[in-house]
Design a protein that fits this description.
By secondary structure, this protein is α/β, with parallel strands linked by helices. It is 42% helix and 17% strand. It has a six-stranded parallel β-sheet with strand order 2-1-3-4-5-11, covered by helices on one side. Strand 8, helix 11 and strand 9 form a beta-alpha-beta unit.
Length: 330
Amino acid sequence: MATIKDIAREAGVSAATVSRVLNNDLSLAVSEDTRTRIFAVAGQLGYKPSRLKQMKRDTVLGGKNITLLLWCSPEEERDDPYYGSIRRGVELRCEELGIRLGQTLRGRGVLPQLPAGDGLIVVGGFAPGDWERLHSDISTIVLVDQYTERPEYDSVRTHFRQAVNQALGHLLALGHRDIAFIGGGGEGERRAHHFKRVLEEQGCYDDALIRAGGGWGSADGYRMMDGLLAGAKRPTACFAASDPLAVGALRALHDHGVQVPEEMAIVGFDDIEMAAYVQPPLTTVRAYPEQMGKAAVQLLAERFEGREAPSHTIIGTKLIIRETSGGTPE
């Protein structure tokens, strides 16, 4: 009977990689070619995982309960689909693993104390005290999209450094130097931090072109762009830290008679469904929030099965070039 070591030898990878791929570990960074090769070799060798092992896993996970704590309000989730996509990923992976998804809590109200055996997924910009009041066992808490790093907790993050490098690399390559930033703010907001870092390295950062604070919706983007246009120095390009902000900024530019991308280029972040349908279609950095939600559940499942060391998953991004930046659309 074929073993994981047999598959690893034939596929040219480690036994640990084979095990994690066959167990659908979403936190593992492995190419699609490698993943396909492992499954192909497993099929050729007639590998069959232990039914007893699967029954044991079903028993362990089937008795577990996960609570989801969301930073955003229902209205904010409606206006910005990013957090809704994370929640959908949590729901899908819980269903796949047979884990019960219990309460979905919002951070604005009075929050109940959770049972010690439950898992908790914290999504958004909470302070540590917010979740510590809920749940005392840090081994079964996963932080998703947190501003501050807490290495003692499992975590899932978007690769914001990569995202900002992609957005600004594109605009700089098109010749822009006066580049503005609009963002919702928040302590330690990563996109703003990396925006400043990149442009300071290029010698073209200008604090007068930064608008941050408040919300993340289209009305906030309109207000911020309106402020930029009223300033003494008009940028030739703008990076918006969310697509809803970018949509609002586009409307403000239209109302002021500013041509996009001829007079100002715009790059957003998220690649929400609307991004491809605004006029002109929005260049944006695609994030993968649904995958983040799935990865958070996977980390909790590993903890329920006995993993001791904290684990940190970083989800990459992809630049999607459309018409608002003036580059060559995909």
